[in-house]
Sequence to fold (1265 residues):
Amino acid sequence: MPALEPVEGWRVVATPSALDGARWNGDDVDVLRIAPDEALALGATGVEIDDPDAIVEPEAGFSVAMLDVDDWHGVVDHIDWPLPEEPTVLAQGKVAGVPARIVLGEPTLLVVQAAYANELRSRLGW
Amino acid sequence: MTDAPAEVAGRIVVDGRPIEFADGDSVAVAIVRTGEVPGHGGCLCLAGDCGNCLAEVDGVAYVRTCQVAARPGTVVVRHPAGGKPQLPVVDWRDLTLMPVGSKIAVRRTEADVAVIGGGSSGQSAVEAARSAGRDVLLLDARDGSEVVGIYPGPSIVARDPGGMLHVRADEIVVATGSVEIQPACPGSDLGGIVTAGAAERLEAAGVDLGRVVHVGRELLRFEGDAGRVSAVVTVGMDATETTTPCETAVVDLGRAPRDVLARMSRAEGVSAVGPAAEDQPLPAPPRDGVVCPCMGTTVDDLEAAWDQGYTDLELLKRASWAGLGPCQGGACLPHVRSWIAARTSGPPPAPFTARPAARQITLAEAAADVAIDAFRRTPLHDEHLTLGARMDRFGGWWRPWHYGDAVAEYWAVREGVSVGDVSTLGKLVVSGPDVVEALERIYPCHVADIKPGRSRYALLLNERGHVMDDGMILRDAETRFTLTFTSGGAANAEMWLRDWIQTWGLRVHVMDRTMSLAAINVTGPLVKTLLARLGLEDAPRFLGHIRAEIAGVPCHVMRLSFTGETAFELHHPLDGSVALWRALMDAGRDLGVRPHGLQALFGLRLEKGHVIVGMDTELDTTPRRLGMDWAVRMEKPAFIGRASLERTAKLDDSRRWVGFSMDGEAPTEGSPIRSVENGEIIGNVTGSWTSPLLRKALMLGWQRRTPFADRVEIDGREAVVTPTPFYDPEGHRARA
Amino acid sequence: MVSEHIASLQPIAWHEPRDSYDVVIIGGGGHGLSTAYYLATRHGITNVAVVEVDYIASGNTGRNTTIIRSNYAIPEAIRFYDHSRQLYAGLEAETGAAIFHRVKGHVWIAHTEMGMRTERGRVLMNQAMGVDTELLGPADVKRLVPQVDLTGAGRYAVLGASHHVPAATARHDRVAWAFASGASSRGVHLIQHRPVTGLLRDGDRVVGVETAAGPIRAGVVLSAVGGWVSQVAAMARIRLPVRTHPLHAFVTNDFEQGLDKIVASTELACYVSQTERGQMLIGAEFDSQPSFSRLSSFDALRSYAYKISALLPFLRSMRILRTWAGLCDISADFSPIMGETGVDGFLITTGWGTWGFKAIPAGGEAMAELIATGRTPGLIAPFGLDRFRHDLAMADQASAGTR
Fold:
């Protein structure tokens, strides 16, 4: 069973251009651009950003599963909306009825708010 | 014509009796092989079109046995003759479909073009699409892909041997071909009648049909013996009748479009081709006998309904029931149209529409892999369970309703110290050069004068001046605020703010922290003692807020009060929540700390007269009606709802929400409030609580008649309107 | 041999349309037909035409889930719907028509403390208004509805319910036909397949309707339209506080009778009853997205197939015969809008939400009285359009809607 575990990172809301130029601290950072003006940087330890009004907060409210190809097949069966075809693109929608974010790749990241993690685990039979 | 299969592939059980079947047999063919009929007579098509082979198969009633492959051990039970199946019986020891439908797989697939039907028109459609370089999916019922319906999208839902199939396509082509027209004449409900196509199938399966008579449009009626056909009566050009004895009658009355899917396919991107889309000559108008085998509608029924004025195809269908059965008019529609054309001496009416399901599925199959109502848990969920909480769903979250003794929880708050999980509160951070402007327009209170480190209670109003939500405005810095909302209203409040900020084009960033931060409300007269032990030396004064580490957990400490006692809300990252909660419980042990649930909280707030939006409010609740005009600053030039409030302020108002008290136990929430003069119902109780401290029943509720009464009747007792707060009206304890 | 159910059909009379009537009713659904019936029977007004875009009862009336109940939470609604319930109970005797009226009782199940709070309040308010509704614990629910899974599929445990004893069901198109028969036999004209395309005006007053087949003049025009009421009101230059949302429903095949009660759940937002033919008739909440589409939605079907079978697991192995959708006119406070509109000669009955079946007799009776006397009956006075101007919502969220 894939592990769906809490992760830490930074969350930033800023002007889109400032976010484009953000410099993320940390070794292994996955930046999810969840809106034009919002990014969730998993694994980041800090950020420099060129927007004096940016909201920059440490974020511990998400859980992430890293999915290999087999795991992913088990998840796809519970998605009833079209996924993007290009890899590494962020997709947002419901997985088994739970609001989720997906970064396709190797591995694929499945990201949910921690409040939903338990519900998602039980729905996916994890 | 009883006929054991040459090579037995297995046995199925029909009405408790095993029968043998040959490889490739459907359940219907296996039954016909024994010389019996799968249903209770009527012409068999063996193509999935009619309703004459319906039976219960493996616990599911109304299954077309011609569409189910016979497998060893398949259990078939015929529907009661002339009656209906009993409701399914649930084996309560084995609810294997728990949760509903989870054992049924759903496959989801996409195609440029989905073609329904693999006959010649379907194959042409497939080839045309493929040669245009398009990705094609073919769904053929003969391969077990039974289409339930075509839906907007367009999309298709089908059942296939692997489970359920959900298909999205750019284009859907209905190429379902044509059906054989069923006979509609006296005796057509006898057994032993098959269509020409069915006869071919049976012969190919090696079934001996006995003495066969082929009959076409010269058919007049069937004669029978013990429910089976014994002869076919035909009429010649010269009106002479000929009776031909037989054991099986094979009927060829021509074909009609197989158009159930075409008739429901009003979705964009759907087309019908081939015979499914082509008009065919209608059969001769039926003169007698059963027209609709599914519902048993006869020609006499059509006549009777027509004579009573039900002279529109749709009215006739509903009055006579012809076409309302499982085959959706597949069998009867050509006959009914022909009958109407003859009756009116006019053209036949257009066919009636069809609706899903074209091929039926069970509720479990429909519900397969459905996922609704994702309930949220706070990081303290397991702590609550450990402490014996009864969890309840509230505002989309699991929350502790009580921990076994709501009154003890109440006393802990009033006299000692208590912790409550308020992680579910809505929390937004807003920031930007226009943030004050935006909040001044959104909220009915002043915002600009809130100093950094201070906060203010605020109502959220809609354009009609009605209360949508409430919460706190906390100023973090010149251009940055934290806003809180109710648990149930948080999602709507977030959309509301984002919509308005975008509409106004203001430079404000919004970050939703609702599920990113947990929050613990620590409240009671001993709260400062407890928090000091965990590192909070300089507690903020009432309505102040600071950042501080408590038990090593970074917290946004907000000094407010919903309970009426000194209270601090500690907002903190989820990963520190369990540690913080345990630290509070441990450090407060000698202070008698205990957690409180929603039930105690509702009593505590009631003593303070605090409103709970959604529980106390209605769709037309203005601040004035709540007695909360103090939360609205009409001197502000503009805020959402202001124009409406200005207008409605001039109306005589007949609604107000007030406190009531009386001796004895609290009445049930929702109790009617009556006039003491005439007993008329003048309102209802929205909150009710037997105050352990004040030792009487306290209530909040609505009066909806003027003049407003000072004394009312609730629960058969007299209650008096009482100013709120009932408890500590000066608010000394919250500020202490 | 004529089947029993057909032998009980009452005749509907069809007349050659005239070009002028005392009253023209737009919309040949339940409310339009019942208004015509009560005009004819209670007030002797028969120079009336009901103008229908399709065939009679083709809209929401014929799509109904046919529950008749008065277990609302505010006195005005309880009074109105209970009067309607009583008219229904006497309708077969009054009209001689078989409408397959059956008293069954309505069990409204709660799964949360807040749900129980709602049901307790409903019971007390109903009893205070003389309406027979009682509170049930889980064991009582199981006794009345033995098929219920008290664990709610392990997810929606049953905490209790309210039981509205006199709740009933009736056959939807039989109800429409009973009124159509009674009205048309007294001379009311039923004009099918005649879309209304505009209103005739004389100054500020509405004096008839424009139709695809020519104008029809009228002393009074009543809109009893379902689904497209905003468009009809716009012809009278009225903007209604109404939004149109689709609602879906479905039935299974016919089974022997076995589910005695009407079973509903607020949290699950679905309900089921067994029809006189033996089908399980299942409905749910209206779509949150406004739309005029009457196409069935599989997403709706699967979610309420799930919900209702979580409560009643025997439904899982039943097959779905047919699904359909209709349009709901949802007013700003989820309650109906009846009466005068501020435009002379133009009255309205709308806001029937999830198809308005239970209100058909009382709504029609009251609108007929208003037309005949020019005075708004007290029973419907709280439901006037002007309540929105006076900021007096008939707010009863816990009872309105589909449930």
Observations:
- The mean pLDDT of chain C is 95.
- The domain at 104-165+243-330 of chain C is CATH 3.30.9.10 (D-Amino Acid Oxidase; Chain A, domain 2).
- Chain C is about 30% helix and 25% strand.
- The CA atoms of residues 199 and 236 of chain C lie 7 Å apart.
